[in-house]
Amino acid sequence: xxxxxxxxxxxxxxxxxxxxxxxxxxxxxxxxxxxxxxxxxxxxxxxxxxxxxxxxxxxxxxxxxxxxxxxxxxxxxxxxxxxxxxxxxxxxxxxxxxxxxxxxxxxxxxxxxxxxxxxxxxxxxxxxxxxxxxxxxxxxxxxxxxxxxxxxxxxxxxxxxxxxxxxxxxxxxxxxxxxxxxxxxxxxxxxxxxxxxxxxxxxxxxxxxxxxxxxxxxxxxxxxxxxxxxxxxxxxxxxxxxxxxxxxxxxxxxxxxxxxxxxxxxxxxxxxxxxxxxxxxxxxxxxxxxxxxxxxxxxxxxxxxxxxxxxxxxxxxxxxxxxxxxxxxxxxxxxxxxxxxxxxxxxxxxxxxxxxxxxxxxxxxxxxxxxxxxxxxxxxxxxxxxxxxxxxxxxxxxxxxxxxxxxxxxxxxxxxxxxxxxxxxxxxxxxxxxxxxxxxxxxxxxxxxxxxxxxxxxxxxxxxxxxxxxxxxxxxxxxxxxxxxxxxxxxxxxxxxxxxxxxxxxxxxxxxxxxxxxxxxxxxxxxxxxxxxxxxxxxxxxxxxxxxxxxxxxxxxxxxxxxxxxxxxxxxxxxxxxxxxxxxxxxxxxxxxxxxxxxxxxxxxxxxxxxxxxxxxxxxxxxxxxxxxxxxxxxxxxxxxxxxxxxxxxxxxxxxxxxxxxxxxxxxxxxxxxxxxxxxxxxxxxxxxxxxxxxxxxxxxxxxxxxxxxxxxxxxxxxxxxxxxxxxxxxxxxxxxxxxxxxxxxxxxxxxxxxxxxxxxxxxxxxxxxxxxxxxxxxxxxxxxxxxxxxxxxxxxxxxxxxxxxxxxxxxxxxxxxxxxxxxxxxxxxxxxxxxxxxxxxxxxxxxxxxxxxxxxxxxxxxxxxxxxxxxxxxxxxxxxxxxxxxxxxxxxxxxxxxxxxxxxxxxxxxxxxxxxxxxxxxxxxxxxxxxxxxxxxxxxxxxxxxxxxxxxxxxxxxxxxxxxxx
Length: 967
What we know:
single chain, alpha+beta, five-stranded antiparallel beta sheet, 29 strands, about 20% strand, 25 helices
């Protein structure tokens, strides 16, 4: 079909070829592809281009509308009616005017009938009126309208014929394009050859076959690409004018510029081109594949026959009734037949294995019934000699061209030896697999590129492989660093090049993750069944631990030798007969009578020392060998044979082998001769030092006792002062007058008590005195109790210092709050005297098993120091906080915090040192003894201060030895 969007020319016709080539010739287009033009001379392609039919819009412009048809017909009708109505009058007028009238059909008008008129002049007859003119005009109009209508009719007919012609031309053009496309897209090679022996035209298949484009096709000589026979045939057709138009069929070869050769079945026909010159039209079908298949079929047929006759497998085929149709020579030989043709028409019942015939026929029918092949199944066969053979048989159905099963094809081979070999192979494979699975050494196979092909389970476990096949195809470069991978690769390549194995090579394996391992490796060439080297096979034994042990042994040997060469003490090893085996350099230097090391080996103490020293030493060594008990730190007097006397401090131990058996002794002797000489002076010096140390210790203990007792005596002094003040207050001076007054009124005591004003106040006075005495007694008893407690505390302090001397104490279970309250009570008078506010922050804490006197002494010292700190600060809000808390389940924490003068940072580390103090009259014993007491309790004491003027906090931590249950 012609598209409605094609462009139109000036006449309204469609432009069938809007695109033109540079030479002015129109070129057909099909999807943008240039088509062969008419000037190529190709009689197959050179066709006249027809103009297609007008488009509907163009046709509408050339067709008269229905309106003009109606107008024309109406005018004609009106003119006819007017002419008919005016015709009689017009005739009468004509007669009256003297016009000649046609009286018969044979008469005619002539100009001579009008006298006085000239040619080309019209004379108005006499009596001619306007109506006559109108009638005449109407008549002429009718004639004109009729002629116009007739002309429109004729034009319509011409237009219809033109449209039909253009439609036919369109169909022909479409057919031409289809024909062109068919030729251009055809797989056959279609071309024409002109008289000059060149391609006049050719389709795309030809250009592809010759590997040229359309522009270069005409430049290719035909004789250079076709066979000589084909070229002679083309020349003969071009020269033979009387050649038949019937096509000539030949086979030829077509060669491209690249050397590719095609086999063509060529159809040739002589014809004339557009210019009248002879051309040869050629249609070639590529039969290269067919020729190749024919040759292959021939070869295959020959090869099949050769295979059938030479293959060791037995091949046979049967019809649907299991009757043999043919076989190969091997099968015929098994049957005892002279040739394969002799099997035709026989069944298995006619052959030596007739005992198995029913089973064989059943297998045939199963294959033909189901249509499914039965492949590679093993079945027994009893041979004519009675032996049992095993066959591996395959049977497949034979189908005809319609797919119907018409028989069965079978093959078998004797696999008796293979079956036996398979059993042996399976056993060997099982042994090999067992070795790979359980051998602790790493076994691996590599190809010629040193890539892993197979390896043992130990290899998988060595590298913790999640996927056992993860290393297949990889090399040592993927596991190790270049340091190890490169030498290993070169070793394997050398093995494959020379065929020489590497046995027992020690290899250092440096892994990518930084690990270093050692392996003892053996690598041999891996050969196939033909003896060709296809890779390497290796076994690597991990000796990392052995290597490390060896290195450690070497290291320890070097250390031991260094020890023997440099230690000043004499070290020696002896066998079970107490003969020297090995010894240090110091021993040789100690024995100048021995010439060298080789002179001492194998000798005993009897060869060096006198019997006085050699005999006890020998007995000690034999006792050690017998009992395994060492001799440690024994002082020995060595009497040499040259008269010298030396002293040594000796330790001897049993010398055991790797299995723990005693194989001798080894000893270390330290020469203490010089020490022995200085022993007297040392002893005297030691005694003096002991005496001095004892005096110093007594002084320190005395100073601690005096300090601690002094603190308590201060409290006793305060209590005594309070008692004296109370006693000095004479609140009962008038009490001595009461007895005198009562004696004066003996006999009238009732009147005195009831009527005398003094007697009336006497009872009230006595009651007041009694109450005051009771209060004073209570106060005195309280103060005396405190004095007694202070005295008891002094005794305890003295006992505590004695405990320090013995490094032991008595422990008891006590409430922490009671300990803190006792310490506060000892310092209560001093705190009150200095108007210090005491704050108690006690958290619940279970009783603790502790030496209460040590804890009390620590707390008393801390509270006393806090009192001095806040008193020296001079601030009005003097405050001391006593705090008890639990730290976890294992510690009791007791703190004393003050807002006093504080502690400089440089003194925090020295404050617990013996004798360190910042007070002018202090002696530095209190905190030192407190630190010792805390350490003796298994705890600790710490201090914290933010600096001068910011107070201090002392923290005592005491452990719970037996954790009691919290109440």
